[in-house]
Amino acid sequence: MKNITRTILPLFICIAFAGCVKVKEDLTGQPTSDKFFHNIEDFQSYISGAYAPLFQDNFTFEGDYAFIAEAGAEDIYHRIGRWRGFEELNVKQVSNPDEIVRPLWNGAYSSISISNTLVGLADTSSIDKTLLNPVVGEARFLRALNYFFMVRWFGEVPLLTEKNTIEATSLPQSSVADIYNFIVADLIAAEGFLPAIQTNANKPTKGAASALLAKVYLTMAGFPLNQTAKYALAKDQATKVMNMGIYSLNTNFSDLWNWNNRLTNRELIFTLYANSQSGGGSQLHMVSRPGTNSEQGWGDWGTDKRFYDQFPNGPRKDASFYTTMIDGTNFINTNFANPFVAKYRNAGPRSNFFTGPPASDKADGYSPILRYADVLLIYAEAANQAEGSPSTAAYDAIDKVRVRAGLAKLPTGLSKDDFDKAVLAERNWELAFEHNRWFDLCRRQLVKDALGTWYPQTNITNNNYLLPKPITALQLMKGLRQNPGY
Length: 486
Hints:
Starch-binding associating with outer membrane, Serine Threonine Protein Phosphatase 5, Tetratricopeptide repeat, mainly alpha, SusD_RagB_dom, two-stranded antiparallel ribbon, SusD-like_N, membrane, 41% helix, single chain
């Protein structure tokens, strides 16, 4: 096959963003339509690469960085001095914030780049659309998910698609509204393309697209867009998931975090899974356990004792934290002096769950991104906001979560505002350490109310809601601008 030279389609052009340039290169051996995408298996194989930058030895969600970036909320506490500014709502004091933000940026755009390539090549493929559309739906779901995190972490970012990636260095950053509109369009398409059930638990389903769209609408209803009409859409999307008859709450909260249940759990709607046998793996079990007291982890982050003390007692609290080390030492007497997170501790055979030192620093861990309890709480919040008062259905949704947690049902007759506060508090407890609380505080503009007394030394403003953009990206992309306050 003769060599062909031309401007490349966005394959891995932005895989680390340091290489995000318009280039010409020999395409021999590259996975383009004339060399690789001959059948549906080629497309299926290719899109699997979009998961690796998120949860496979890349530190995005499987280790430190996403958790540290969201440590301004009450649930995450870390002890690493050079990162303290992320937790204390003063990232400006961090000497090298790129250590955290660059992997998040690169990981998301790597996954987006792969999704863009697949969507672009699918448009011109002769493969039967009934076979191809589910893979396209998968790509569009993953692209939407990545942009959803990017716009909440960084605000205005370049909106790279299958049509414009080769112009990445000259593109202006897109408005937050335009990014959200793009996310919505991708998820609506994914809803239509994805199957209701996947044989591979790692892949998104129609329900995952609907649930993520509900969460996107809920976020659009809050800051900075404040499109309050989106509450009704969030309610409708959550209702759609609730009526599917596919998902349900686990009877026991602790079963959610049992590695043996990870593939049969009906509460998990979309989850990132690691595979330690393929050369990658999750490190969540290492970063969230201490290096002392026979634990032999890294102790990068855990939770704040103040958060633990406020957390309602019951089986949910027992399953969310662990306070006694393998050698019997209470957390108060460790060099961390804060409780540890139990949710990610059972990470498969290589993690030696509660039995001794980890067998490996990389295990087959998993991290839920969407689960049914989240959908119920989205419904409760959105219905109350859209309808002006809590309905019986809204009460029922939150009460299912509370009863499973060992709590009493909410008292009836609450005002709209009191019910809203109860739902936001419930999200805080139920979804702790699952990439929710920080974003909830930002979209409802509650950061100062929630954390002002924790960090009185910080002048909390709206500038604190966004992370700084990586220096390398700012240097390479002519249209990119740093966020205010950095």
